[in-house]
Amino acid sequence: MSVLKDFNFMRARYLFGAISAALVIGSLVLLFTRGLNLGLDFTGGTLIEVHSVEDIALENARSALDDSPFSGAVLQHFGSAHDMVVRVAPQQDIQADLVGQLVFEELQKSMPELELRRVEFVGPQVGDELRDESGLALLMALGMMLIYVWIRFSNKFGVAAVAALFHDVIVVVGVFSLFQWQVDLTVLAALLALIGYSINDSIVIADYVRDTFRSSRLTDPAEVVNDAIRQTLGRTINTALTTWLVVLALQFFGGEAVHGFSLAMSIGVLIGTYSSIYIVCSIALAMNMTKDDFIVVEVSKDDFDEMP
Q1: Alpha-carbon distance 234 to 242, whole Å?
Q2: What are the phi and psi torsion angles at 78 (to 5°)?
Q3: Contacts of 195 (CB under 8 A, 6+ apart)
Q4: pLDDT (0 to 100) of residue 304
Q5: Nearest CA among 110, 103, 47, 56 for reference residue 84
Q6: CA 74 to chain centre
Q7: Which helix (H) or strand (E) holds 50?
Q8: CA atoms of 270 and 122, how far apart (whole Å)
Q9: pTM higher than 0.90 for the full model?
Q10: What mean pLDDT comes out for the span 281-307?
């Protein structure tokens, strides 16, 4: 991009660093104060899917459950206005295997044309295990990325890249906490996909930084980073744009089943692209990254001969 050949990206790194710090702190505050709206995958409960030949009015369906033990149920259209899913939290006084049928009977009183499609139950113990194992999976993914980038580049880029991944995940989760969007296993899958997507951009920029340090006479780290960003910017924008278009297609045409996944990814692609430029590189510069961090130490045959 010839227009940006002299643009100094790193000039604004302190401003964007402050914005990112505010986003992370705000997200953590939201997580501790508001928490997450966990789906049945994590909390346990019963899911009931019903179908009607006519459009289902969610307001009428909620009114049908107002005077029942299931008044706090979550109702959503599923794929079309003819289909609806009802999510009911675990009930203390009702057997789990009866909840689905009882909810359907309550709905059928005001909507006799309803047809029961399926009933699924997730026990609270299974939900707790999924929640704990999901958090462990995220931590393991971040840890493996740290090891990989540390070995491939330098310890400074490794720390910077993983810090950016933490930034991306925390901000996306913070947005879900702010709007109380439901978090289920599809959102977890999106967060894991986001880790892979974000680290890919970071590695491309790190490759150019390393090659520029080794092959050019540039010695100023900020100048080297700017040059690497300018060389990779076209690729970064094209990758983000094509990924975002696919995610938006899923968002609008994929239906309820992938709604959480596409929503998390649509936010994550924007955050991940931004963090690859302004979080990874800024942290690496703050850690005094120099040309010495990328010099390959050659070991000669004489070094081995002198070993005891």
Answers
A1: 12
A2: -125, 95
A3: 138, 141, 142, 145, 165, 168, 169
A4: 43
A5: 56
A6: 23
A7: strand 45-51
A8: 34
A9: no
A10: 68
Rounded CA-CA distance 114/54 in Å is: 9
Helices 185-215 + 124-152 axis angle, to 10: 10
d(CA 307, CA 184): 56
How far apart (Å, rounded) are the C-alpha atoms in residues 89 and 43?
8
d(CA 47, CA 118): 8
Q: Which two tokens stand for residue 272?
A: 């991940």
Specify the CATH number for 2-37+126-294; select among 1.10.10.10, 1.20.1250.20, 2.40.30.10, 1.20.1640.10: 1.20.1640.10
Tell me what pLDDT residue 5 has: 66
| Burial class of 15 by CB neighbour count within 10 A (0 to 12, 13 to 18, 19+) | exposed
Phi, psi of 163 (to 5 degrees): -60, -40
Look up the CATH number of domain 45-122: 3.30.70.3400
What are the tokens at 173? 């989760």
Q: What is the rounded distance in angstroms from the CA atom of residue 85 to the CA atom of residue 118? A: 9
Q: State the DSSP string of 158-186.
A: HHHHHHHHHHHHHHHHHHHHHHT-EE-HH
For the chain, first and last CA: distance in Å?
A: 55
- CA 243, CA 273: separation in Å to the nearest integer? 11
